[in-house]
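B., you asked whether I could sanity-check this one before it goes into the benchmark set. Here's the sequence:
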Amino acid sequence: MGPLQGIKVLDLSRILAGPWATQVLADFGAQVWKVERPNAGDDTRKWGPPFLQDEQGNDTSEAAYYLAANRGKHSVTIDITSTEGQKLIHQLAAKADIVVENFKVGGLKKYGLDYESMKAVNPSIIYCSITGFGQTGPDSKRAGYDAMIQAMGGLMSLTGVPEGQPGAGPQKVGVAVVDIMTGMYAVSGILAALHHRNTTGIGQYIDLALLDTQVSWLANQGMNYLVGEKVPKPQGTAHPNIVPYQAFATKDGHIMLAVGNDSQFQRCVQALGVPELAEDERFITNQLRVANRELLLPLVSAAFAQQNLDYWLDALNQAGVPCGPINTLDRVYAEPQVQHREMVMELNHANAPKVKQVANPIKFSQTKVEYKKAPPILGEDTNNILTSQLGLSPEQLRELEKQKII
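And here's what the prediction gave me:
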């Protein structure tokens, strides 16, 4: 029994930010009704290769991108542009606790599926809208996508090879982090609103923007600028506030070193065979190491170049110095710790024997996350949900299908 057992979510979102949020809610035990366009569905179903393969090794219609964000949901195909389809959505909203959508500002109002319309059907509904720029402001009508928000929100200005070095220039992160973080902020906002509703009986509207999210999680880099009034620059793998905290080349690979305090630095240089650096007045404190990083880093780099990666991993781990290899994904999933934590599991799928999934990282002590349903094929649950939730008869379902409403 997940902690959100009994909560029902009407999911009108697609692509990534919204679906990521509703997948987390499904992991937590909520029943999620993913509404999709008949004969088309979520755009990401076709965002491949790679595609899930059936028993004969043939590609199915489920792209890996879609499979990453839609576990645990019930796919219900409804044409929301039709009057009858809108009625079905209203009826589902009347039984739901939460609505999540990521249409453009005002995009659902013409269909009578905006917050005010849903609130009229269900006054206690929690309605979360995810857009590129929010419901207000000069850019509110613009479409927003992850890469452009990484750029506008400052992340790309902080990411990449330092200026003056080969390969320098703005770079985006290799995963759609703005979408993912917006999805996670959506989850936390929804759960806060759910607690408020359970206390007061009053639902509410959540206005969430990709750009706001990106600005909010600039974290220490954002505060570095606000406090120091100096624009941060890309530093590769280095840290702006901690030294040494970056990747170093060994004889046969690279190691990521994360020295977080002065005692760790002392143990680090002892393990590296250069203990005199701990006594050097230029490097005694982190503040001094940051100020003198250009003097310290060549000395640390020279030490790392003397031995292989595994040698340094063993030596530094024994010394209690945080470090790790820079793994490719094949090595990530082969890591003993990752396997012990059961971060990869398999679910039965309608079009394939099994589908691998990356597990939710949260480990509850009392309400264990249970994965009961693979990402659904298009329309897999239409008849079941419309029958169980709205009481539609087989004849009514056939008529709706005949009219191409479902």
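One thing to flag: Residues 314 and 323 are 10 Å apart (CA to CA). Otherwise nothing jumped out at me.
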